[in-house]
């Protein structure tokens, strides 16, 4: 029986099992699940299942496992690397109805949520508790999706990524078995770290249905500032020295002159020049914050930074960070009808100036319009590349991306700091990890999903499997 | 051919391959490798191999793999759970000659070391760089052993455990293949997190030969203080509130009255009473440290803490922390000729007072002499149980340990915060993780080491293997 026949045959069984409310073959629903926010093409799923519980997910996987039907999990669809694009003849398993907050343990700074809730919805719920969840990727992503891609964002320099902020998971395995990983304790030395193995596994090892998260206390004081530089290397050196001094800065974001020009126009930041810019956030107890600010200001001035502009009120702070978060839309707005493609490289911070300088040369040679911005405290940056919205334009962007990735990998970096592999970064994995590590990853995949029904074709390029 | 015959037959091949300097069947050498610092019995290896390079380890594993001979890695032998006790007819693979510091990247706060170097030797080397490695288990452990057991210590409350402080590894797989995991970047979203999978795998998935570590800047100011309490719950509440307030305390250690009495005698801490005590360390920039101290002092006083005693000079600080680190020896000194056995439970911090109160009742019922101390900021504590140095005494301690672990697991805790499973905690794994997660762990083990030659019998109790 072909994969297509298998998939069609189980849709009626899924309808019987879950009811019509949770199973859709409607064209517009399938279309909405045919792609993420990526440029990796689209593919229609045979059906979309709206799971409402771990039991639903388990039932779907049991059936798909028995019939060897591929399954791809879908949350908010904010992936930019093609993670949620359905494989051929597959089911898209939508978890966006699983939004329950199952427990909040304020004294222990942890909570448990279903995988379909977004980080914004969680933080809205937590608003009166004095706690918050700090990991903030650009999109309105779900916590499950953030786990699956090992997401981070602007606050990772202070609070870490999903890797450091997930204590445990409920996972449905390929055959429908439900397992628990980790727990509520802050550390443990018992057994293999399955939680970390599922974090970043992009739906290829199991479907995450519940997440135990670390929370953090809302800092007593938060201050934000902006400093502009005539030279890129001065800005990067400033960020580097802040990290080296151990200043526990809450955020330090770089926008190059191209990006800043677009942000000034899009977000009316008329008080600034189109120059290389650092956005800072300081958070903590008042004296500590004052001290961090004084140290940071002196480092910036020593590196030829212009004077600090302060965002004293929460409104001003929100305006600044909204402008930063709208960086993509600022570039998009300057490029009507064109496509904007983001790279996601990361290197050790000491190599960042060299890398970005090289990337600027690559951009110039390409003749394309492109801006650079990033989480400079982590050594992670994005190049937003604008091209015609055609296959040829896409190829042009891809050519530039390949040059940028090659530079990063030659410096011991990674092709993705936070977006993940999906389909978009598959070609770089062997250069980055080596054939040995990849063969071991394939052995994990084969052990967890021997029939290759979990998001097949993502994360791991084809190749030999470690045999031990 | 029996396992014994296999093992004997390869010793001559190992001699030929590596030379007499690296292969020993000497009785006293084998005896020194027959156990850790544990009470789990001893077993002589057939031979001890002193590896001097990743290539040596690879050569040994290739041969052992071909002949199905079990191998157990050995570092400093400081395991307290029987990790390094050789399985039947096995080779002990000693990495303590692999002590090279391969690179120190000061601007990026990272370094690469061979697995056999101890944390103390590394920190001695780093002394003039302004950097240090913070993870500090009690023993003079090797970094490889600390990776293998996912070790932590008194500084984990601020800096995290080995999980948060290892960026990448070189690992020799069961068949001798050498792979690289992770790298130098501070985060990455590409591929399965093999680094975290090997951290805590206790030599059962591969042999770690090199470690890329995160380093931290030595704080500008460090202050230590001691505060005593009449009641245990007040001390625990103080620690809890410090964590909840987000005070970035460097260390907060609890010693109960029994432990404190022993430490006063052993370390001449005559200025203190035999009462429940918290040891604090504050670290950072000066104003931040002053602020942390003021906040902590007010929390302690609100919870009926007596006045703070300050250790102002480095000598006084060293004296205090040495007394804390000698807690085991303080108990040992009061118990000449007896054995001291340590438990290692961890629970969410809000449950710690309940748990310790219960444990105190268990101790009283047992009639044994036992002290409680621990990394209270993480919810992790040790009970040092003293019994006669006989099989019967060992059983008494084990009975008490089982009661303590049962209490911790009933509260959603873990049977080991930092010592690992080894042989000592095997019996608790199924209750802690559930049969589902254990079967998945066994699938990882089967995929990485299908012939079960890597430290067989440790970490995972026998049982079904997930089949996907």
TrEMBL record, chains A, B:
Q: What is its EC number?
A: 1.1.2.4
GO BP terms in the entry: lactate catabolic process
Name one molecular function that GO assigns to this entry.
D-lactate dehydrogenase (NAD+) activity
Q: Which SUPFAM superfamilies match?
A: FAD-binding/transporter-associated domain-like (SSF56176), FAD-linked oxidases, C-terminal domain (SSF55103)
Gene3D superfamilies reported in the protein's UniProt record: 3.30.465.10, 3.30.70.2740, Vanillyl-alcohol Oxidase, Chain A, domain 4
EC main class here is oxidoreductase
Return the similarity comment. Answer: Belongs to the FAD-binding oxidoreductase/transferase type 4 family.
Q: What PANTHER family has UniProt attached to this entry? A: D-LACTATE DEHYDROGENASE (PTHR11748), D-LACTATE DEHYDROGENASE, MITOCHONDRIAL-RELATED (PTHR11748:SF111)
**What name does this protein carry?**
D-lactate dehydrogenase (cytochrome)
Instruction: Print the organism lineage.
Output: Bacteria, Pseudomonadati, Pseudomonadota, Alphaproteobacteria, Acetobacterales
